[in-house]
Write a structure and sequence with these properties.
Blueprint: H1 6-23, H2 37-40, H3 63-69, E1 70-71, E2 80-81, E3 108-112, E4 114-118, E5 166-168, E6 173-174, E7 179-182, E8 186-188, E9 191-192, E10 200-203, E11 231-234, E12 249-250, H4 254-262, H5 282-291, H6 320-329, H7 348-351, H8 387-390, H9 395-401, H10 419-422
Parallel strand pairs: 1-2, 7-10, 8-11
Antiparallel strand pairs: 3-4, 5-6, 5-10, 8-9, 11-12
Length: about 425
């Protein structure tokens, strides 16, 4: 029998890992902790020699993730669209709560007085994987508001590849002290994944890294000072919101976790305070959020106030009771669209997506335009909308950036969504 080349072995291992992912439920491969070792590593270092000290199946720290997490069609675990993202006028496919990294490959130009240009890497976190076409941020050398080096930004800069962090039976978070029994990221029919007994634990939300984490292999990387937030997602989260919304229940600690890399931009460090985060909304803002349905319509009662384009951060934490309450909110069938109370908060993910979006700065909606809809439609460079509203995008790209939400769910001429809290 002919020997198998190193490259073919790498491709074969990656294919097997992805097939395992596709054949099992979305959370089965990682299952709240470390995945199948052979899914990411090679036993005898066939794919890199001395240049691959981590025995990875691929050369890059993001590439190893994208081997499975990129694709051409929607699947629960995919966070990057392959191929079509580079076609002019066509949008990326994925609609996960965190966004689709492929928006980083979409650059736009339009005429508004003079030619306006928007480079793709303004659309989110610029993970690096030359094999998948992702390059270093061409503007920021470090994380805005922090010191994390942009030329070392990988998936494992935020996610712990071995999933060591866990929610323990006593509601604390750490890297030891209880065997991880399942993923803690998901809500099934309103029932939370909770540690069932002492000595057991569930994984933290999305395998996020926590206190003490230092992303490998950086020597100069800042050490994390904050643990992952309490949060929960419905299992069918990569989906269109044409009919119903996807509600992720973000709990306590979302903004604090972002401080691990973006300290001064949130006001936690230094003086670069741009918007209050993690302070309670108070009764005035909560009442506005609950009443606001769209521009000119303040008839909401709070029972159907939630908007996935402006999710709020709950005060709930990791106790069993709080996780059950988060699970009751994390739905994709509009069974729970209750708005905030005065004790809930604004978090970073209220306005931003964690990965990337169709808008500048990974925003959930277009804050650069004064109107989100124009004459009842999403503005596009192919439907007669003024350039200052379509900003170089086709109508289908604009619609996808809003996760296929129907434009009639907004006002005929919808103003910026700052109105939801500040009308």
């Amino acid at each position: 029998m002919m020997p198998i080349s190193a490259r073919r072995k790498t491709a074969l291992f990656a294919l097997v890992a992805c097939l395992l992912l596709a054949a099992l439920p979305a959370r089965a491969f990682h299952n709240g902790g470390s995945a199948l070792c052979e899914g990411c590593h090679t036993m005898h270092n066939q794919s890199g020699g001395t240049a691959n000290p981590y025995l990875l199946q691929a050369a890059g720290f993001s590439t190893i993730c994208l081997n499975c997490h990129e694709g051409t069609t929607i699947s629960s675990y995919r966070v990057s669209t392959a191929g079509s993202a580079l076609v002019v006028g066509l949008p990326p496919q994925m609609m996960t709560p965190g966004g689709d990294f492929a928006w980083l490959k979409k650059s736009y130009s339009w005429l508004y007085g003079t030619i306006q240009n928007e480079h793709g890497d303004r659309h989110g976190h610029n993970i690096i994987s030359s094999e998948f076409g992702y390059q270093v941020d061409n503007l920021n050398s470090t994380a805005p508001g922090g010191t994390y080096p942009a030329n070392s930004l990988h998936c494992i800069s935020c996610h712990d590849p071995h999933g060591l962090y866990r929610v323990r039976f006593d509601s604390t978070v750490g890297i030891s002290g209880g065997a991880i029994q399942s993923s803690g990221s998901y809500s099934d029919n309103g029932i939370a994944a909770n540690p069932s007994q002492a000595g057991r634990a569930v994984g933290v939300y999305r395998l996020l890294a926590g206190t003490g984490y230092k992303p490998p292999p950086l020597v100069s990387a800042p050490v994390f000072n904050y643990d992952p937030p309490a949060a929960m997602s419905p299992t069918d989260y990569n989906r269109s919101e044409t009919v119903t919304q996807t509600r992720v229940a973000y709990g306590n600690g979302v903004a604090s976790w972002c401080v691990n890399c973006h300290g001064s931009i949130t006001g936690h460090v230094g003086t670069r305070f741009t918007h209050p985060v993690e302070g309670t909304l108070g009764s005035v803002i909560a009442t506005r959020y609950n009443a606001y349905l769209k521009t000119g319509d303040l008839s909401g009662t709070g029972t159907a106030a939630f908007l996935s384009l402006l999710p709020f951060e709950s005060y709930l934490g990791n106790s069993a009771a709080d996780r059950n309450a988060l699970a009751a909110m994390a739905r994709s069938n509009d069974a729970n669209l209750a708005g905030p109370t005065s004790q809930d908060r604004v978090g970073c993910l209220t306005c931003h997506r964690a990965h990337a979006s169709g808008w500048r700065y990974a925003l959930r909606w277009n804050n650069e335009s004064s109107l989100l809809t124009y004459n009842g439609n999403y503005p596009g460079n192919n439907n007669g909308a003024p350039p200052e509203y379509h900003m170089g995008r086709s109508e289908s790209e604009t619609r996808r950036a809003y996760y296929d939400r129907l434009p009639e769910r907004f006002a005929v001429n919808q103003n910026k969504l700052c109105e939801k809290c500040h009308v």
